[in-house]
Amino acid sequence: MRTVIFDLDGTLADTSRDLIAAANACFDGLGLGAPLDPAQDQSTAFHGGRAMLKLGFERVRPNWTDADIDAQHPILLASYADNIDRHTVLYPGALDAVVQLRDAGFAVGICTNKPEGLAETLMQRLGVRDHFASLVGADTLPVRKPDPAPYRAAVDRAGGAIERSILIGDTVTDRETARAAGVPCALVTFGPDGRGVADLAPEALLDHYDGLFDLANRLLPA
């Protein structure tokens, strides 16, 4: 079965404002204000909690250490879990594109570096979890992207075959995951890096979800 696997943050949904808010809650709790900007720091948000904390500490605590990040990371995750869908929305056309793929006989799933429990909660809150046959998170397996094992698990759990699958993502992590798995990769251009993702040399670029069905059929001919 032809299979399309999606990254989550920055690909299916714009989660950046809620992620930045969770990181800023950590700094506010330390009396350090809110050093991260929801617009300017979108790209960092999509690279995960530790990346956000590192950037924030670089701005407000020059003598920060890894111990500071280790201490704040659980607090960030708890804050994010409490407010996971306050601002988060699916990108325009994403759900319609997924439904179109499924109606045409594609299997669809998710492979994300968000912890599985948080990803499950978010997709349930957004009301779209049932549209995806699989969901593999950062802690589902002992390894995470760009190791290809989570991607392979997402394809397998969706009922697909690796050699008939593609990954839709938005960052170098997704590009490297696809390369490691030996599958085509399409990167979205509506994230914070825009068409700059073309520098990663994916097999395709996706400017809007309206074009996903044709893209999937081109990369995975029937």
Kindly describe this structure.
The protein is α/β, with parallel strands linked by helices and 222 residues long. It folds into two domains: 3-14 and 88-219, HAD superfamily/HAD-like (Rossmann fold, 3-Layer(aba) Sandwich), CATH 3.40.50; 16-82. It has nine helices and eight strands. The protein has helices spanning 16-29, 42-45, 49-60, 66-82, 94-103, 116-125, 148-157, 172-181, 212-219, and strands at residues 3-6, 13-14, 89-90, 107-111, 134-136, 165-169, 185-188, 204-206. The strands form two sheets. The chain has a six-stranded parallel beta sheet with strand order 5-4-1-6-7-8, sandwiched between helices. InterPro entries: HAD-like_hydrolase_sf, HAD-like_sf, HAD-SF_hydro_IA, HAD_2, HAD_sf, PGP-like_dom2. Pathway: Organic acid metabolism; glycolate biosynthesis; glycolate from 2-phosphoglycolate: step 1/1. It catalyses: 2-phosphoglycolate + H2O = glycolate + phosphate.
